[in-house]
Write a structure and sequence with these properties.
It is an enzyme of class 3 (hydrolase). Keywords: Coiled coil, Hydrolase. This is HAD family hydrolase. It holds the Pfam family Hydrolase_3. InterPro entries: Cof, HAD-like_sf, HAD-SF_hydro_IIB, HAD_sf. With about 290 residues, the chain is of the alpha/beta class. It folds into two domains: about 150 residues, 3-Layer(aba) Sandwich (Rossmann fold), CATH 3.40.50.1000; about 100 residues, Hypothetical Protein, Haloacid Dehalogenase-like Hydrolase, Chain: A, domain 2 (2-Layer Sandwich). Helix content is about 35%, strand content about 20%. The chain is built from ten helices and 14 strands. The strands form three sheets. An eight-stranded mixed beta sheet has the order 5-4-3-2-1-12-13-14. The longest helix is centred in the N-terminal third of the chain and has 14 residues. The two termini are about 15 Å apart. About 45% of the residues are buried.
Length: about 290
């Protein structure tokens, strides 16, 4: 069954992005068609805002973007909301991450992501070739690109507002040990964690996720949570999928995600699954 929603929220990685981290021109076109029919379309991603432009076709537009798993929301260049990790938490986590030799990227608002030069050797070591079989190609390519072009290697933390931490490890045992350490750290200082693969974990402000971001964006547009639809594929999408009135999982999503949604797409992210699904919605409303 396909519903006729008033607002649609789309995850990026594994959803509108294929495994080469690109949004197809077909997906752009169907989003344009739906918006022309009066349906609001939003992106709700774990990516920071500066990670979006390089993944979408020229002219790609949506009504709003929820980034960093709900930490910030934007309409064009306007910030609708921005939550920030405290400097105290940032410094404490970096100290712990150094002990565990875990790969990290810290995302300040309005400047390049940061990794401290002191940690560069073990961070780069985590993405040495060959790629481990269990690491997704999209995540691996993103880390390679970050190391090569996007991380600002600094002597010390710069900035005062931070949207999230991203952590990665090439082995599941390593990242699981780090997740356990983060859970212990939550007893000292409150924050939220989110995962989108078996090799990563992200840190945000306590009680912030994609669902809280959607709620704030709907309020800004004076829209109800009724007649909302979301499409996603991973654990960090669960709050969003549970919040909207109709939830859709990608065909490439793991089974535990498919079990909690109303419907699953017929095609994967590499087969333009979102395009084919949204095309049916467009046919209903045209």
């Amino acid at each position: 069954m396909v519903i006729q929603p008033k607002a649609i929220f789309l995850d990026m990685d594994g959803t509108i992005l294929n495994h080469n981290n690109k949004v197809s021109i077909y997906t752009k076109q169907i989003i344009d068609d739906l918006r022309n029919q009066g349906i609001f379309v939003f992106v709700a991603t774990g990516r920071a805002v500066d990670e979006i432009d390089g993944a979408v076709p020229e002219g790609f537009q949506v009504d709003g973007v929820i980034t960093s798993n709900g930490m910030a929301g934007y309409i064009g260049k306007e910030a609708v909301f921005e939550h920030s990790l405290s400097l105290e938490l940032v410094e404490k986590i970096i100290k712990k991450a150094r002990e565990y030799k875990v790969y990290y990227e810290l995302f300040p608002y309005e400047t390049s992501r940061i990794t401290l030069k002191h940690d560069q050797p073990h961070v780069e070591n985590e993405i040495r070739d060959p790629k481990p079989d269990s690491v997704g190609i999209n995540e691996w390519l993103s880390r390679k690109q970050a190391i090569k072009e996007e991380i600002a290697w600094r002597d010390h933390i710069e900035g005062s507002k931070f949207s999230k931490f991203y952590f990665f490890a090439r082995t599941k045992n390593h990242i699981n040990e780090w997740k356990s350490e983060l859970e212990q750290l939550k007893q000292e200082i409150d924050f939220t964690t989110s995962i989108s693969s078996e090799h990563n974990v992200e840190v945000m402000v306590s009680n912030v996720n994609k669902a809280t971001g959607i709620k704030q964006m709907l309020e800004r547009f004076n829209l109800s949570a009724n007649e909302t639809l979301a499409i996603g594929d991973s654990n960090n999408d669960l709050p969003m999928l549970q919040y909207v009135s109709y939830a859709v999982a990608m065909k490439n999503a793991p089974e535990h995600i498919k079990e909690v949604v109303d419907e699953t797409t017929e095609f994967t992210c590499d087969e333009d699954g979102v395009y084919h699904y949204l095309k049916k919605i467009g046919a209903l409303t045209s």
